[in-house]
């Protein structure tokens, strides 16, 4: 099941609204990802051993972009891509590490700004959570517990 194929057939504007980057930027990001992945595997011979990932590089980048775009849980991402929750977490973290390396970023905060300066803007929005106005006592008493 290739989820990227489902996203690829969508219109360019809809693809950007869903993923956070346009199709051209996604292809550039994929090329950089593949080059850095080859460099990463060639650094240690043990990285070439073991089973290959069941996800294509496009799906690995897509699952990471969907995660930082929508902040979905790894369980919902896993269900969407047909993988387990723990494997979705592993692929997101691995993809993040490779993207940090290929864009020369020290941390995730600079990755987001670097993606924007390299014309790979990711549209990530925050949603404010309002505190309850009525019946707040049901959720929080306001008292600090003295138990340490």
Gist of the model:
This protein is mainly alpha-helical and 148 residues long. Helix content is 57%, strand content 0%.
Describe this structure in words.
- The protein is 57% helix and 0% strand.
- The protein is extended.
- The chain has helices at residues 3-8, 12-19, 23-43, 57-70, 74-81, 85-102, 108-117.
- With 148 residues, the protein is an all-alpha fold.
- The mean pLDDT is 80.
- α3 crosses α6.
- The longest helix is centred in the N-terminal third of the chain and has 21 residues, at 23-43.
Please give the radius of gyration in angstroms. 19 Å
Low-confidence stretches: none
Q: How is the main sheet built?
A: none
Structure annotation, total helices: 7
The percent of residues in helical segments reads: 55-70%
Morphology: extended
- Secondary structure class reads mainly alpha
Distance between the termini: 50 Å
Compute the average pLDDT: 80
Which sequence of SSEs, written as H and E, runs from N to C? HHHHHHH
Could you tell me the number of beta strands?
0
* Beta-strand share of residues: under 5%
């Amino acid at each position: 099941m290739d989820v990227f194929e489902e996203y690829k057939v969508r219109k360019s504007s809809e693809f950007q609204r869903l993923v956070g980057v346009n199709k051209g930027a996604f292809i550039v990001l994929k090329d950089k990802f593949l080059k850095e992945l080859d460099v990463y595997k060639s650094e240690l011979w043990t990285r070439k051993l073991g089973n290959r990932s069941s996800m294509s590089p496009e799906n690995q980048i897509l699952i990471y972009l969907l995660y930082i775009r929508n902040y979905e849980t790894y369980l919902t991402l896993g269900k969407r891509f047909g993988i387990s929750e723990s494997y979705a977490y592993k692929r997101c973290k691995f993809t993040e590490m490779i993207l940090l390396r290929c864009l020369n970023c020290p941390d995730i905060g600079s990755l987001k700004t670097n993606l924007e300066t390299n014309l790979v803007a990711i549209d990530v929005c925050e949603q404010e959570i309002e505190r309850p106005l009525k019946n707040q006592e049901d959720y929080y008493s306001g008292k600090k517990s003295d138990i340490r």
